[in-house]
């Protein structure tokens, strides 16, 4: 396994996790990569590491260009273990190397690994001379952990952005112009929706700083490196961070005897009549992290559950818990469902949608089996009333 050159003497030396399918609940159907970067200068510098089980792969890649014991500096942009997992073994190899990290980074690394490495704490936006080149650090707290920072290399116009601008894609290709554009943008959106979305206000504050940089490359810690589609990904991040939505409805539901499904279908028809694009997302067949990809750009979030044992279905409860944590803003919420005799589920769904902060549309609730055309007309009427 070889290092891949980004610029003269700057290499990608990460790991490709082809078989990763679950990243703490995020369905990673395309696998992922953990991107570490090596800068060979007067001070040999490694930016981030990889998950612990990919350490050997990283070392093999580093060894293809330099003896890893020559590493002087290690930059830890983020404590989370997909990027710091390789650090303990690396520091056994280079115990005298200096670890540059944010104040919270130092606290986090010490808490994770119980080691007193030779830390140099990056307290603010400061520079580090490497020889012919330098790194400028920018602290980016809560994008998406308190310890996060990014590093900019002005001489080559490269931003090492850590999780920001990442995508969970395993591939032998390393650059954004080597894979289909739609796939990388879809995965970047999925990544934003499932990891970054709750921290959108922090992203909004950081984006102007990033946009002022003279940039040719954004090198994130997952997926492909952006060198051809920078304006596009920056524009998408701006939209996502601003919670900008499209005329689109996501209809998320589970069903027991297809009655809630019938209401979902009627909603789809009613939205279509209004010229609103729809995505029908049955929880029986769609992973919640894929549903979030659609939620990212949807103006209307409709959630349906029949009543089971005075409650919502567990699958719907799981989705609502996930949605609440990711906290999209500027959305309309609509609760719907069928019931037999008590019907608490619809109010329960509605109360979560309200808690998230969605503006509520009138709920749709039917006892037992709703009827076809009549139902669609009634749903359309309620939607019209809600939109007035
Ligand atoms: Fe890719 Fe927050 O770790």
Determine the CATH topology of the largest domain. Metallo-beta-lactamase, Chain A
Please give the domain count: 2
SS content category: alpha/beta
In the CATH hierarchy, what is the architecture of the largest domain at level 2?
4-Layer Sandwich
How would you characterize the largest beta sheet? 7 strands, mixed
Per CATH, the class of the largest domain reads: Alpha Beta
Number of strands: 22
The CATH homologous superfamily of the largest domain = Ribonuclease Z/Hydroxyacylglutathione hydrolase-like
Rounded to the nearest angstrom, the radius of gyration is 24 Å
State the helical fraction: 25-40%
The rough form would be described as: elongated
Description:
This protein has 388 residues and is α/β, with parallel strands linked by helices. It has two domains: 4-241, 4-Layer Sandwich (Metallo-beta-lactamase, Chain A), CATH 3.60.15.10; 249-386, Flavodoxin domain (Rossmann fold), CATH 3.40.50. The chain is 35% helix and 24% strand. It is built from twelve helices and 22 strands. The strands form five sheets. A seven-stranded mixed beta sheet has the order 1-2-7-8-9-10-11. Strands 17, 18, 19, 20, 21 and 22 form a six-stranded parallel beta sheet that branches. A five-stranded mixed beta sheet has the order 12-13-14-15-16, with no helix packed on it. Helix 1 links the parallel strand 8 and strand 9 (71-75). Helix 5 (181-196) packs across helix 9. The longest helix has 16 residues, at 181-196. It is elongated and about 75 Å long. The structure holds MU-OXO-diiron. Residues 78, 80, 82-83, 144-145, 163, 221-222 line the site of MU-OXO-diiron (FEO).
